[in-house]
Specification:
The structure is a homodimer of 267-residue chains. In chain A, 24% of the residues lie in helices and 33% in strands. With 267 residues, chain A is α/β, with parallel strands linked by helices. The first copy, chain A, has one domain: Nitrilase/N-carbamoyl-D-aminoacid amidohydrolase. In chain A, the strands form 4 sheets. Chain A has a 6-stranded mixed beta sheet with strand order 5-4-3-2-1-14. The radius of gyration of chain A is 17 Å and the shape is globular. At the A-B interface, helix 5 and helix 6 of A face helix 5 and helix 6 of B.
């Protein structure tokens, strides 16, 4: 039996204050003991960009940017894994990305496949697809989705078919409560754990760029049980014990394996 | 604006009493006025077969079987459409099917694609795939899923991609509350209405064949609103007004059409 302690941190970033935002997120997560910590989407920069130039200025390299360095150092010190949503710069392009780190080492990155609303104006959508990462020290295979990716059941399904036991879901959700229901379905229909780390707070950067972020971060089991949850407005870090055997067991009755029962030629 | 009055009927069939079961279902639905009525899965025969021979004996032709005749007559008299789950016999094979009827005319049938548990021993799984039906008098395109089909997000997606505005979901659900959450996600992620008609009651036909059916039939809007719902143990028929414009509008923001935002080459 492999039990992984998974955690989300629910933060309230201040727009454009990258270093301070990562510092306060780390202060929050330091309060709880976990093996795997999931941070919100764009938790370095904040969300509501008003121009491509601004987005480029606040985005960072995921090789050696300051935010990644802070997270690497934290994960090394705490001997843990971290999945964090970061505004990524590569040359003159920007991506809404997540970095996957284990004990001071970058395992890789995921770039958001389904951009939401005006993110389409600031970020390039990924053409790299979905991928899983094996956390060697923990012995756990994870997949990453970012915020609006949740809306597309194909995304979670793809990760489950590739063996993800835990879906890490950095988010800046604005539709109150919808993704929480959706991710309960995703956890159950794929028999995976889901850690949604959402942010809270309000950003008002002009009439087109007003967003209230809805919190309610949660950890859901493959049986659809809510193992941990946060409120709508608080900052918080919470942990749950995830027994990975539950995610390996794809049978819901002795005659129904939910992956091999699929009828892909008809979909 | 096309508003369709959709209804579910939540019944408590008695095993093996086909004629009586359809009669009492019709008595129940007669209490409410609707354009489209959805009945539970296997609402003619009951659920817990103990042999293939028994299943064959209680299944009926969907061309001219007695249950279909009763439903045709009801739909003609009430000038309505009916989707009802029926045990179907074709030659020596049986299917867990739904018939789609409008005003005394059979529009077609759907045979369950994903069989649950010991249904695999009694029924043949469909090799016909998923299909939609246009209700001409009502002006509404529907798709049909049966019970456990809900578990597979690909099924609802397929129907939405083929233009279904309403998913009719005859069910004999035994996992309490899971499908209700799942179908809220399906309604929202596809922007369709979902009418789940579940049954109640208990069937005990031996140690391997004991089932408690969980009720909680519901009608969900494309915005994930619960428009109607029944209790866990009552028989009931309930109606909701479904504004089809909501299902035609696939945009969730001015920049996000949830069908064209899909990235099928990566799924």
């Amino acid at each position: 039996m492999t039990v992984v302690r998974g955690a989300f941190v629910q933060t309230r970033p201040k727009f454009g204050r990258n270093e301070e935002n990562i510092e306060s997120a780390i202060r929050l997560v330091s309060r709880v003991d976990a093996d795997l910590y999931v941070f919100p989407e764009l938790c370095n920069s904040g969300y509501a960009f008003t121009s491509k130039r601004e987005c480029l200025a606040l985005s960072e390299s995921l090789n050696n940017g300051n935010s990644v360095e802070q997270l690497l150092s934290y994960s090394e010190k705490r001997k843990c894994a971290v999945v964090a949503g970061l505004a990524e710069k590569e040359g003159q392009r920007t991506f809404n990305s997540s970095v996957v780190i284990e004990r001071g080492k970058i395992l890789g990155t995921y770039r958001k496949m389904h951009l939401f609303f005006r993110e389409k104006l600031w970020f390039s959508a990924s053409n790299r697809g979905f991928r899983t990462f094996f956390l060697e020290k923990i012995g756990c295979k994870i997949g990453v989705l970012i915020c609006f990716d949740w809306f597309f059941p194909e995304a979670s399904r793809k990760l489950a078919l590739e063996g993800a036991e835990v879906i890490c879901h950095p988010s800046d959700l604005v539709m109150s409560g919808k993704a929480q229901v959706g991710m309960m379905a995703r956890a159950f229909e794929n028999r995976v754990f889901v850690i949604t780390a959402n942010r809270v707070g309000f950003e008002n950067r002009g009439p087109k760029d007003r967003f209230r972020f809805t919190g309610m971060s949660q950890i859901i089991s493959p049986d659809m049980d809510k193992l941990a949850a946060a409120g709508k407005t608080e900052t918080a870090a919470k942990v749950a014990q995830m027994n990975l055997d539950l995610a390996k067991k794809k049978y819901v009755t002795p005659l129904n394996n939910i992956l091999s029962d699929r009828r892909p030629s008809y979909y």
